[in-house]
Structure formats: C-alpha cells, structure tokens
Amino acid sequence: MPQPLARLIARLRGLSRRRGVASELDEELQFHLAQEVEANRARGMTDQEARRVALRDLGGLTQTREAVRDVHSLWIEAVWRDVRYAVRALRASPAFTAIAVAVLALSVGVSASVYSVVDAVILRGLPFSEAHRLVAVGEQGADQSPGALNLVAPQNFLDWRARQDVFTGLAAAAYAEISLKGTGEAFPENLLARRVTANFFEVLRAAPMIGRPFTVENEVAGREHVAVISHRLWQRRFAGAPNVLGKRLPGQLASFEIVGVMPPAFSYPVGAAEPVEVWVPYVVGPDERVRGNDFGYYLQVIGRLRDGVSIERAQARMDQITAELAAETPRWFTDRSARVEFLQDYLTRGVRSWMLMLLGAVGCVLLIACVNLANLILARGTTRQRELGVRAALGASRGALARVLLTESLLLSVAGALLGGVLAWLAVGFLRASLPPELPRVALIAVNWRVLTVTMTMAVVIGLALGMAPVFQFVRPAAVAMMRQGQRTNTGDRRSARLRASLIVTEVALAMMLLVGGGLFLSSFARVASIDLGFDYRNVLTVRLRPLVLPPNAPPGPSPLLDVLESARAMPGVETAALAGGGLPLRGDLMTHDFTIPGSVPPRDGDIAMNQVSPDYFRVLRIPLLRGRAFTAADRPGSPPVVILNRRAAGMFFGGDAAIGQVMNWRRQDLGERTVVGIVGDIRFDGPENDARPQAFVPLAQTQTSAATLVLRTTPDAQGVLAGIHAAVAAEYPEGSAPPVHIDVQTLERHYSNLVAQRRLNMWLLTVFGVLGLGIAVIGIYGVMSYIVAQRRQEIGIRMALGALPSAILWSVIGRTSRYLSLGLILGITAAWALSGTVSGLLFGVNPHDAGIYAAVAILLSFVGFVAALVPARRAARVDPLEALRLEV
Amino acid sequence: MPKTDLLQGTLDLLILKILALGPNHGWGISTRIRQISREGLNASQGSLYPALHRLELAGDVRSEMKPSENNRRARVYTLTAAGRRRLETEADSWERFALSMRRILQAD
C-alpha cells in the first residue's frame, strides 16, 4: 500500500478510536511515570521524593497529551477546533457579533442590490451586436435645452435618409396599438406594437429566428398587412406552433400575415415593463410627405454608425444636411437642427442623475459601516489583550494567536457576507417591483451575480483585513513578550485612541450627510403629496370608449355614448357618472383650440385647452363650481351654445367674474360662438408638479365627439361595476352591427400613484439610508465611549478617590462626546451643503440649502448622540474607586 | 547533567536505532537513550511520545499494549521493515553530515 494512503488510513482509524486512544495514552504515560518513580526509589529517594522528582523531570503531562493529540489530529480537525473555539468566543460577546455581522450584511446587501439596479438600468449595454455604434437621431428646437432629442416628422426622416452617408442605415419606429379580436382559442386583447421601416431589424442587427423581416415592398399601402411577432406572443397566442408563418393576427381593423418570429432575447424598446409584441411595416401617408407638417412629429429614428465614422462626424454631417434643407425650405427649417446621440445615453438620459445620487447615498452608508466595523474590531482587539496575554503565557506561539483572531474574523466575515447575499436578493426583488415602470429596462433588473460575488468577497476580505489589525498590533514578538509579563503596550494605546476618535468624527459627519439627504427628499415628497390637485381622484374609475372606425352613414355624435352613460348611472356601486370627450386629469392630454373674443377692444384672441363633458362631470371629480351654473340636460343640440371656464381662464381673458355672459368665438366648426355661463375651480391637469392651465368646457351633447371616457365615482367597495360596463357597451355597440369598440379601464388613483412613484421611492430610499446611517453611527458612538470609559477605569477611580463627584465624571464623558459630535456635525454640514446643490434637480419645491432641514437634522443627531453616550457616562459615574484601583492589570 | 533539546528528526533517528536493538516501551527507550549516550542526550516526555506516535502513523514502527509487571499495561513499540530501511538511510546521511562537520571544524 502506498505510504500516504496507509498514513491516511491510520489517521482515520485513529479518529474513530479517539476516545480509546486517549485513555490508552494515559495508561502509557502512567506506566512511564510509575517506572520513573521506581527508578528514583531504587536510587534511594523516599516515596514522596521519588514521585516529586519524577513529576518534575518528566515535564507537563497536559502538554504531552496535547502534543500527541496534535500528531494524531488531521489538519481539518485542528481547523474545526479553531472554529469551535471562535464560535464560543463570538457567542460570549453577542452584541459585538450581532452588530458586526449586521453591518457587514448591510454593506453587502445594500451595495449589491443598488448596484444591480444601476447596472441594469444604465451601465449594461444594449443587447445588440456592437451596440455602441447605435445612435438615436432626433430634432432639437432652438428654444429647447441642449440635449433634448425630439421625435421626428416623417418627411424629415425621409430627407435625412436620402442624403446621409455616415450611417449604414437610418430606421424609424412609431408607436402603435393593435387590438386583436377574440378567436375560438384566445381572448380579445390589446397589443403594444411598433410601425417600423423595413431596415429596422437590419440596423439593430437582429434577425427573426423563424421567417424573415418584411421588406421595402411592404412599405406600400395594400401590402403592409404583414407582421413580425415577438417570441412571447408566439408562445401565448399560437402555442409555439412551428407552422406559424402564414397564419394571421386578427386585428380589429385589419388582419396581418405573420412573416417572422423574433428570438426570445429580443426586445425593443429594451426591457420595458410592458413589452412591444408586434412589428409592422411603417407606411408614410401621402399627406405626410410634406416639409412643413407642423403637428406630425412621432418617429423615433435610430441608426448605426458606419465603420470608422465617429459620432462627432455624424453630427457634423447631419448639421450639414439640416443646413441644406433649411436653404431649400427656409420658412419651416429655421431654428431646428438634428441631433445625434448614442442610443444607450438616449434611453437612460432622464435617470442618470438619479442613479448617481443613489450610488452616492449607498456609498455613504457603506463608508459608515466600514468605519463602524473598524472601530468595533479595534475595540474588541484591545479588550482582549488580557486573554491573549494569558494564552501567550501558557505557551501559545505567535502563529497560534494569529490563528485564533483570524478564525474569528473569518467566521464573522463569511456569516456577514452570506447574510448580505440573501439581503441583496430580497432587496432586488423588492426594488424591481416598486420602481416606476417608465424607468428604462425595469424588467431587466435582476441580482447581478458578478457584483454579488465581488461584494461578498470584498466583505470577507475587509472583515479579514480589519481582523488582522489586532493581530499586527499584538502579535509582534515584543508585544507578546510584554503580554507574558502582564503589561500593556502603552504607545499603541494612545495611537489607537486617537484613531478611534477620528473614526467617530467621520461617522458622525457621514451620518449627517445622509440624514440631510433624507430630510430633503422627505420634505420634497411631502410637498408633492400635499398639493391640492383641485379635484378628488379617489374612487374614480375611468373607462375609455373608442370606436375604432366611424360608420359611414351613422350621424356623428355622442348619442350611443350617452346611452351607455345612462346605463352606467343606474348601476349599483356607482355614485355619479359622466363622460369626457377630451383627456382626463392625470392621464391623457387636451387639445388646444384657437378662439377670438368678438367685440373686444383692442381685438383679443388666444387658444385654450378644451374638454367636452357631460353635465355631471364636475360632480364626479368634485370640482367646485365658483360662479354661474354647470351644464344641465337642457344644454342640447339646438339650445344656446355655452361654455364654462376655469378660474385661471376667466382671470386671464376676462379679468375674473366678469367672464359670465361674455361671448367667445372658436374657429373650429362644431364649437363656434359660445357664451360663458359658469366658472369652476382650477385643477392641476398634468399632476401635482405642474401648475393649473386655463381650461374651457363645452357640453358633450353639443359636439360631434364620438369617442369619450366614462368617468365614474364608485363606492369604495363596488364590485361588478366593470362587468356591468362591458354589458352596457355590448348592448350599445353590438358586435357585427356597429363599429368595434376599444375599451381601456383604469383608476385615477393608479395614475396619481404612478406620477408620484418616483418621488415616493426617493423619499423612502433616502430615509432608510439616513436612518441606517444614523443607527450605525450611534452604535459607534456608544461603542467608543464605552471603550474609553473601560480603559480609563483606573484613572476615574483615582479621581473619585481624590474627591471628584460622580456628576463631574458624567459631565466629562458627555463633554468628550460633544467634542466629537460637534466636530463631526461641522464637517457633515459643510459636506452636505457643498453636495446638496447637485441633487437640487431631483427635488421639488425644496431649497437644497434649506436651513430648517439642516438645523433639524443637526439637533436630531446631537440628541441621539448624547443619549448614546449617556449609558457609558453613567457607568463611569458609578465606578467604585476601590474596585477600579484594585483592578491592577 | 546538561539536558539538550533534540531536534525532531534527530529524535526520530535515535528512537529507530534504539528499537533496532529490540522492541521497547517509551520509558525504556528514554532510559536507553540516556544510558547509551552516557547522559549526553535526553528525550523529554513531551517530545518522545509525539515522536513515537508520529513514527507509528508513518508506518516505521508498530505498537501494541502489553501487560507488564505490577499490573500495568505498557505500549511496546517494534521496528517495522520500513522503519529498518529508514534507519539505514538516515543513519547513513547523519554519518556523512557528522564527517563533513568534523572536517570543517578540524581544519586549520
């Protein structure tokens, strides 16, 4: 049998018989002792003397036993023994262990999760081949901030495409929706789609995995009903059938022949929460091929830079092209230019500063955690000097001492890192669910394993490194020798005390910064949330009814809608119901229309946002009527045309209440001349952060609008309202006999939530960070002051013995703490003041240098710091001088 | 009686040699080392027993508990064939080492 194997077997056998081995060894050693005693007696010593001399000459029995045990134990056993001892030592100081593990876990968890989010949203490249060559091209008006990149008019796109030579291709995409009919196997549904030029897939270098993309031949009316579908849609609606090519997508308006299926990894726009599932050919309408089309900007244009072409050169070429076009059609092109931007930047532009702020805040928390950990471990190392000294006196070598400390640090770090990994996984899940869906690539947020491994490794390394510090401090040979003699290393003491004091000051400063951030964002959110919108959005259900095609012979007008309104009003659970032809607050948009005020001197005109509403509209949304009257059923086609203004409009055009009875004349035919009969309160149509606009309302019945949104105020627990609506609509617009209706249901409350979601998240995150930072810093203060008190027990004892009052001792501790606190506060305030300017863009209605917030935070931090120091201070005051002096080390 | 601490490898060699003279227990080995070296060398209990156990794990000796006088059991060690081979090799290199040392120390 080969030697190493035999050895291993012998050892393993020894392992299993360990207890037997130990008792046999004892027997062996006893025999040895007995023989030695015999020999001594033979030399003439007495029994007692013989035994004493024998014991003296043979040396320590325990050491022999340990030495033999070491021979028999495997390497693993020694490690296991170290681990068990370390666990016991850590359990003996539960506060330290818990805090250290918690701090490590938080560091790993928080940094890994936030980094995962930032990575998915900003840093990770687009999932296309050579994605760094992809650019977005948009329009920029002279009056806009530099960096704006707007959607493009079709003719612009065509011109650019024809004249450019710096891109391998320019493609365009337009937003679309396709409403699918229900078939035997599948329900009707609304699909998000894009109309794209044929070279769209080519520019992205993404090809369908089945079939082919459409070609330029499909960009012609009559041949454009082909589609490329997403992998998800293929699975969901066609069960992944291999013969899907040639099958049709049954849209309400047209049926599309499927010519290709994209692979599962493809998505454009990248990683949106609600993905696009169909791509159809984009056809430029004949009336859009006009330079000077003032309201048809809707194309997103992307391109791929040619090899060797830099983005600057591409921008220069586009500027040239724009200049050429301006020269050819000067009236339209003045003040407009084309802008080229990397696609990656374009998609993430809005959130970049937000993400950076998050990273900054996380960095602060991490710093505080590290500083705290360093403090904790240093303190613990110092207080264990005596224990280490005893071990050294018992014969432990330098390496053995180092091994003890290292095992402990390793255990702590690994435990902290693992816990942190779990925390990161939970946090990422939570963040993905709670981030606003408009954030780019939300769906792609996942735990970044690379980052997690890196942070966990870092945690272990940091834990080890910090744990090594006491090793270096105390395991120098001189220190070991001194410990053996029972002294302390004096200079090391003073140096470490200064170090720990500066660490405390740093912690306080960082905590101050975080708390100021938390305060600012909290204040910002509170301001947004407290804004009175001017209407009540709670318990309001909105149902958008949009007939997709207007029947050729039916009279224009809202009469079928009004019938649906009647049915809705009668439903249980519905308090009030109304219709609105234009957009609703918090969603949608209003069209503005030009008007003049006849008979005004000097002649006045303007334009104003308009909405067509049924009489109960103001009641549903609880918009107050300020003057005059609201609409009634009497306002019908044929009765005098009327209009209601909001207070802003009344003030702007008529100076206030004088508006009642005035006449306004709209250019649009179905609006015409109308008399003002009422004034209602202002509402913030675009959400809490935008001011109220001037607005005008006309009775829906007096217009020819055929699409409107049903607005219902429901009782809080209304059920079955939705089913009732569907039934009413089906009754009014039965399938097959009238145009198909597209239905879209939402609650206003949800829209409000979405609008403030970002702010709410910021507030939540920053407050959590602030509290975390504060908690860790406070623990640090408590720890340091406790340590200092413990170190100085003798000195305190002497002082008290010499007549110092306990209260004086208490105040001296508090005084020392306040020195650290004030220094830290000053540093923190300065740093926060300097940095808060950078986040002012993310705040609403809050001055980043709001002295009130700074003062409040400073007071909070001081108060908490003093409370933290109080416990050790009282402990110091209660020192018994006799005890302290007796404790000679 | 100067007590010199012995290096681990040297002690192993001594033990092997003593056992080559006949199986023995720990005390016997220790006594013989003192005797034969005329008190020049001494193996402390704290180094002797670990060395014996190590040699056994390495397969150079084997042992068993044997009853001895006055009702105690002693662990008696015996040299194995592998141990004999090791003794020859190491004794040889030790001799060469000692010779080289002597040559240098006696140079002038």
Task: Please bin the fraction of helical residues of chain A.
Answer: 40-55%
Note the gap between the termini of chain B.
32 Å
Greatest chain-chain contact: A-B, 28 and 25 residues
**Over the alpha carbons, how many angstroms does the gyration radius of chain A reach?**
39 Å
> For the terminal residues of chain A, how far apart are their CA atoms?
57 Å
Q: Give the amount of beta strand of chain A, in percent.
A: 15-25%
Q: Indicate the structural class of chain B.
A: alpha+beta
Oligomerization state of this entry?
heterodimer
Order of SSEs of chain B, N→C?
HEHHEEH
Mean pLDDT of chain B: 85
* Fraction of residues in helix of chain B: 55-70%
Q: Would you tell me the structural class of the helices and strands of chain A?
A: alpha+beta
Q: Which spans of chain B of ≥5 residues are poorly predicted at pLDDT below 50? A: none
The tally of beta strands of chain B, per DSSP, is 3
- The coarse silhouette of chain A is elongated
Q: What is the residue-averaged pLDDT of chain A?
A: 80
User: Biggest sheet of chain A: strands, sense, closure?
Assistant: 10 strands, mixed
What report would you give on this structure?
The complex is a heterodimer of chains A (about 900) and B (about 110). In chain A, helix 5 packs across helix 15 (about 400-435), helix 19 packs antiparallel against helix 22 and helix 23 runs parallel beside helix 26 (about 850-875). The longest helix of chain A is centred in the C-terminal third of the chain and has 44 residues, at about 750-790. Chain A is built from 27 helices and 21 strands. Chain A is α+β, with helices and mostly antiparallel strands and about 900 residues long. Chain B has 4 helices and 3 strands; from the N terminus they run αβααββα. In chain B, helix 1 (about 10-20) packs across helix 3 and helix 1 (about 10-20) crosses helix 4. The longest helix of chain B has 25 residues, at about 80-105. Chain B is globular and about 60 Å long. The interface of A and B includes residues 32, 60 and 72 of A.
